[in-house]
Amino acid sequence: MGMTLNSAFLLEGEYQYGWHQQLVSAAGPMFTIIQAFVIFYFIRKTNNKYWYPFLFFAFYSRILAMIISIFNPNDEARISAWLGLGYWILPLTVGFTLFILLVKTSKEQKYNLKFNLINYFLSTLFIAGVVFSDQYILK
């Protein structure tokens, strides 16, 4: 296996079983979903706004993966199709779930639009850095 900041892949050979490829595809989204629920819990228990960018990033990264799936099925879309659910059931379910966590946290903690826009901007910069490093620096 090979790995970058944003992907894991076979260096040679083939997966022994089809579900092996799906397991590799599921690793990133599963980590992100678990991260979101853990951070959601931390924010509720500590009322610490410095955890919020991690929750926002979880949502934002899965939404970008869903958008990319329009052109090239990504993670949840591949798994969803493999399960016979079509390309959009799992991406929409994951995106909606993370969106609910984000809205619930914003309302409970009284985070305003400005605070969310700052997190959007920071998430965009971070994701751009990861994608840039994957394509140009770490290859």
Describe this structure in words.
It is a single chain. With 139 residues, the protein is an all-alpha fold. It has one domain (2-137). The protein has 5 helices and 2 strands; from the N terminus they run ββααααα. The protein has helices spanning 18-46, 52-68, 76-82, 89-109, 113-137; strands at 2-3, 8-9. A two-stranded antiparallel ribbon has the order 1-2. Strand 1 (2-3) and strand 2 form a beta hairpin. Helix 1 runs antiparallel to helix 2, helix 1 (18-46) crosses helix 3 (76-82) and helix 2 packs antiparallel against helix 4.
User: Strand-residue fraction?
Assistant: under 5%
Give the H and E element order. EEHHHHH
- Spans of at least 5 consecutive residues whose pLDDT stays below 50 are none
How much helix is in the residues? Answer: over 70%
How many separate structural domains?
Answer: 1
Mean pLDDT: 91
Distance between the termini: 14 Å
Output the strand order for the largest sheet. Answer: 1-2
Instruction: Give the radius of gyration.
Output: 16 Å
**Which structural class is indicated by helix and strand composition?**
mainly alpha
Shape: globular
Main pleated-sheet profile: 2 strands, antiparallel
Number of strands: 2
Q: How many helical elements?
A: 5
